[in-house]
Design brief:
Bound molecules: nicotinamide-adenine-dinucleotide
Number of strands: 23
Number of helices: 23
Helix content: 25-40%
Distance between the termini: 11 Å
Structural class: alpha/beta
CATH class of the largest domain: Alpha Beta
CATH superfamily of the largest domain: Glycosidases
Low-confidence stretches: 1-15, 680-690
Number of domains: 2
Shape: elongated
């Protein structure tokens, strides 16, 4: 079966036998569009339980009743809703704040009763208040012993029950048995059907002792008072402020495994807008802004991606990889591959493991499809490679991942698309430039820094605007004969184009300078287009695979420019040979950059690739043309003679064989029959190793 075959989109909301999983989302006042967007995204996850805030403060604003009148029916027609009633209208508080006790404690019950009478038919439970022991939500310093709180919530709870609702106690945060004990003493718990707790281990909960122990402490208080109220986790979450999206996956799975808990609501769907003030203040605590399943720009985080793709099984698989520790054979130094779950990284790790090396993969799985690559490596090699789910931007996590005796570091991880760098140049810089510097600093701190081989790009040479190219049939050619025969060599001055060019160029220069300034054994590869199996090409990166996939999927291909732009292309197996050679011969190569690619004998224009695809696939891909993209070179062919002369490296794959191999792999990925016999043979051979 194709590796990527989508699962049927039934309700694959993660649920084990004992726990139902929903989502918490707070909707800002009158955010109509945001609500519609959230509904759609939650439906894609198959989520049916939603917890949301019903703000008394908002209801008291002009337009408040109209907003609720729209919001509640809209949500209840799609979800099993748990409304959480909270926030004092500042005009009614002891002081003008949403967390201050109201002057008239009974008014809260009026508000709750009113909402139940209006909309209560479509929900079963009401949650009364949010985080009563979090001063930001309820200012308990104005209410020592929760006396006012118990009176206010007790009245609202009793009324809610009279109106046929079951009452959830606003989640304790932090989970604190002392507060629950006090609420029993105040008599409030007589009106409570479910006890809510909140937990944010790794984000806000210091002194966390694990879900089982935390829940047990609450259960002990309930048992002591003879209460059979079940415990729900009404809010659990993890902020990815440190860019640690895999850790969010782990935190999620941990919460779903909390023993004795019937229901869990995960906080939240979307990161907070950076321009808005959080409850704690404007960026007072950066964690506030990054608890979503999707980022503020709407792009999905790792947890959302896995959940959408494969439900709880896929999420649990990701967590399982992170929890596992591989015992590395006695004293064998490790090879670190950053970006080891990417296209080139997977091919390199496969070779290293086949050669009997011990490998650590450092990758944050930012690349969609990286999980598939990891699964493939495990199917071929068992759990022989250690996976460290680390983002280059987190120097502390990176340091922990490198706490081994290291034989070599291949630094492949990065933001890889020019287009993405144009949309978000800061993240691109942070990952490629700063992330590389983080790695260099960690290596510099070691008594004997290991060799580091870095995959830079031909983009550091810019658009080559001073060179003359002429259009010849379907391709551009350099007017200069030498250039035509040999390609671009390393004497070409750097000319950084596009934010991606700048960030990779900065990293390229730091890597070389750490050889110069600190004596680190580093080598830079300035690479042209690499192609081959495990390349999940998109329009933004990996054009050879992208073109083939488009043909297989019968999607039209957009060509930016006239399609005559020429690249040399190198089969990934040949690049892996070069990477291994660079490590072996690092002493003679250290401190140098090398142009690596297919060279003049392995070149293609976009139009020529389309023709080859037509021959392979039996049908011509449909093309449309758009304007040139920023920094796109008319022609780039690497002069690889220097590396070849120094190491004896020669590419082994012909263009024909390499393209056919990639085509066969992509056909297999899509679950379609490769048209050509040799390609089909390759697919069968791959199948045999699964
Ligand atoms: N493929 C090419 O044609 C080509 C050409 C020139 C240079 N390169 C360079 O080679 C390297 C590998 O390229 P690829 O084609 O395999 O790309 P890829 O996207 O398949 O792999 C990159 C890997 O890095 C990981 N990653 C991304 N951001 C990260 C972060 N912040 N922390 C940790 N891991 C992170 C991704 O999850 C992915 O697995 C890149 O540095 C790229 O710039 C590639």
């Amino acid at each position: 079966m194709a590796e990527h075959a989508p699962k049927p989109h039934a309700n694959h909301s993660p649920s084990t036998q004992s726990i139902q999983v929903g989502v918490v989302e707070w909707f800002p006042f009158e955010a109509y569009v945001g609500v519609e967007d959230s509904i759609e995204r939650l439906e894609r996850l198959g989520v049916s339980q939603l917890r949301t805030g019903v703000s008394w403060a908002d209801w008291n604003r002009p337009g408040g009743p109209a907003w609720l009148e729209w919001l509640l029916p809209r949500l209840t027609e799609r979800f099993d809703l748990l409304p959480c009633f909270h926030y004092v209208p500042p005009s009614l508080g002891e002081v003008p704040s949403t967390s201050a006790p109201p002057i008239n404690l009974d008014l809260f019950a009026h508000f709750v009763g009113h909402v139940i009478e209006q909309y209560g038919e479509s929900f079963e439970y009401v949650e009364l208040w949010n985080e009563p022991n979090n001063r930001v939500e309820w200012d308990y310093t104005r209410d020592p012993g929760w006396i006012k709180f118990s009176a206010m919530v007790g009245a609202a709870a009793s009324w809610s029950r009279e109106l046929g609702k079951r009452v959830v106690l606003g989640g304790l945060s932090p989970i604190d048995p002392n507060v629950l004990e006090i609420l029993f003493e105040r008599g409030l718990m007589r009106f409570i059907d479910v006890v809510g707790v909140h937990g944010f281990p790794g984000t806000w909960d210091a002194r966390w002792s694990g879900w089982p122990a935390e829940i047990q402490r609450i259960q002990a208080v309930l048992d002591r008072h003879g209460s059979d109220a079940p415990v729900w986790i009404t809010e659990a979450g993890y902020s990815t402020a440190r860019h640690d999206e895999p850790a969010q996956v782990l935190a999620f799975v941990d919460a779903t495994e909390a023993p004795g808990v019937e229901r869990l609501y995960w906080y939240g769907l979307r990161d907070l807008e950076p321009e808005r003030s959080a409850q704690t203040g404007f960026h007072l605590d950066e964690h506030d802004y990054h608890c979503g399943l999707v980022r503020n720009d709407g792009t999905p985080k790792l947890l959302y991606r896995a959940w959408e793709r494969g439900g709880f099984d896929a999420v649990r698989e990701l967590a399982g990889w992170q929890r596992e520790r591989v015992s590395v054979e006695d004293g064998q130094p490790l090879v670190i591959v950053t970006g080891g779950a990417g296209f080139i990284g997977t091919n390199l790790v496969d070779r290293l493991l086949t050669d009997g090396r011990a490998v650590v993969i450092v990758d944050n799985l930012a690349r969609s499809g990286a999980e598939t690559n990891l699964r493939w490596l495990r199917q071929r090699h068992g759990g022989r490679a250690q996976f460290e789910a680390v983002d280059l931007r987190d120097p502390f996590a990176l340091r922990r991942a490198l706490e081994h005796e290291i034989d070599a570091v291949y630094h492949l991880a990065g933001q890889v698309a020019v287009t993405t760098s144009l949309v978000d140049p800061i993240s691109d810089f942070e990952i490629n430039a700063r992330g590389t510097l983080n790695l260099l600093e960690l290596l510099r701190a070691r008594p004997t820094p290991p060799p580091l081989i870095f995959t830079s790009t031909n983009k550091v040479y810019g658009a080559l605007e001073d060179l003359k190219f002429v259009a010849r049939g379907p391709r551009y050619e350099p007017a200069d004969t030498r250039l035509r025969e040999h390609g671009i060599d390393e004497r070409r001055p750097l000319d950084l184009h596009s934010p991606y060019g700048c960030s990779k160029g900065a990293a390229d220069q730091y890597i070389l300078d750490y050889a110069r300034s600190y004596g680190l054994p580093t080598v830079v590869f300035r690479m042209s287009c690499i192609y081959g199996p495990r390349q999940l090409g998109t329009e933004d990166q990996g054009w050879v695979a992208h073109f083939m996939l488009s043909a297989i999927d019968r999607r039209p291909i957009t060509i930016y420019g006239d399609g005559r732009q020429v690249r040399d292309v190198l089969a990934v197996g040949d690049l892996v040979d070069a990477l291994v050679l660079a490590r072996e011969q690092v002493e003679s190569l250290r401190g140098e950059a090398f142009n690596i690619g297919g060279g003049p004998s392995r070149t293609l224009s976009l139009l020529q690739l389309c023709r080859r695809i037509e021959r392979l696939h039996g049908a011509a891909p449909k093309l449309s043309f758009e304007d040139w993209r920023v920094g796109d070179q008319r022609y780039y062919v690497s002069d690889t003679r220097r590396f070849a002369a120094r190491t004896g490296w020669r590419p082994r794959h012909s263009l024909d064989a390499g393209l056919e191999q990639l085509y066969a792999w992509l056909c297999q990925l899509r679950g379609v029959n490769a048209k050509r016999p040799r390609a089909a043979a390759f697919a069968a051979q791959e199948e045999a190793v699964r």
